[in-house]
Structures are given as structure tokens and as C-alpha cells.
Amino acid sequence: MNDELADQLLQRARSNVPNDRIVTGDEVTQWPEGALEVLLRDGIMKEIQPAVTVECDACFEGHAEVVEFIEEPPGSLLRAYIACPEFGRVKVDPQRMRRWEIKPPASEQHLHTGTVATGASGDSADVKLYGRESVWPPVAETFVEILQQAHRAGAPYLRWGEIKIRLNAKGHHPSRVRDVRRNIPDWDKVIDSPQSGVYKLKS
User: For residue range 17-37, what is the model confidence (pLDDT) as tens digits?
Assistant: First the structure.
């Protein structure tokens, strides 16, 4: 099982999508026991700075919020929370903030330097990565197509729940927004999120 997981991670390390090389605390919790320790020992991953945001697990909107550390009750140890528009203050296990970077084999590390640029029109899922044309994974292309259709229909803002239904209808089944986000280079330059759980294409 660890060999299979290691192969999957190395495939992600070879990806042209920068966020594909980041492993989150939420992802690690689904791995076989002891897998993380083996991968760290073998130099396949290294721990990096923790995330400052986590995805809310109290609702189904897939929104990410900044983690705040609060003394509650006063005088106690600091506890981590995020603010959910639906459920209010939600407690966060700090382990969820941990992150690791997948390290490509030394002979391939030169493949992961360069710049990312998107088309000026925002009407195409094609991107230029590292000086050559590349195409996003199907789930990312479909996500963008759904937002394009909403834009053309004059209702550009869609909630994650609506997007997820449309993705499912097209054969894609991401459980959370981050499953799509990590496949879209420079997400913040392409996707606008004016409020938690709501998305549109940037003009």
C-alpha cells in the first residue's frame, strides 16, 4: 500500500499544477497508518509551513476560512477556530493545518520551475505552463465551463452546492472545493469568490 501511495505522490510531483505537490492534514488522515512516517523517512515528502486557512467541515459549502487562535475559556490554552456563516464558530484540530510538499526525484526538479499564465479572455481552460501549452485536468476544465455558462446566462455567481451538482452530472465527484482548486494554476487570478462558498470567473 505504501509503494502504491508513493507512486501516486511521485506522479503528482511530476504534475504541471503547483498545488498538486501540496499534501494537507486532511488528506493524510485518510492514509494507511504509518504511511506518512515512511514517506518522510524516504525523502518523498517534507513538512512545510502550516496553512493559515482550512476548509470548513461543519457545512457542505466547501468554504475555507482563516484560522484564529482564541483563549476559551479565558486563561486556558489557545484553541483554533474558524468562522462558518452557517454554524458560527467551528473548532479546528490544529493537525488539519499541517502541510507537506512532495519532492520530485532530483533528476526531475528542473521541471517544476517557471511561470504560469492564463489567457487574457478567461474563456479557455487552456493555460501556458513553463513555456508550453497545457490543459487542466477534466474536473478543472468542467468547473470553468460551468462558471462560463453561468456568466453567459447573466447569473455568474454560483454556490458550491450548485456547482457540485453540475459536476456530478458530468461524471466528476469532488467532495470539496479544494479537490478542484489544486488542479487550477493561479486559482486566485482565474476564480473570484466574493463570499464564502460562492464562485465566479474573474473578468
Answer: 667 788 999 999 989 888 899
Domain total in the chain? 3
pTM of the model: 0.52
Kindly state the cell numbers that stand for 76: 486556558
Gyration radius of the chain's alpha carbons: 18
Give which of 147, 99, 102, 93 is closest to 123, Cα–Cα: 147
- Taking the C-alpha atoms of residue 23 and residue 25, their distance in angstroms, rounded to an integer, is 7
Residues 85 and 183 in one domain: no
Task: Please list the helix, strand and coil fractions of the chain in percent, rounded to the nearest 5, in that order.
Answer: 35, 25, 35
Give Cα separations from 163 to 26, 66, 78, 188 (angstroms).
Answer: 22, 23, 36, 18
**110/107 Cα distance (integer angstroms):** 7
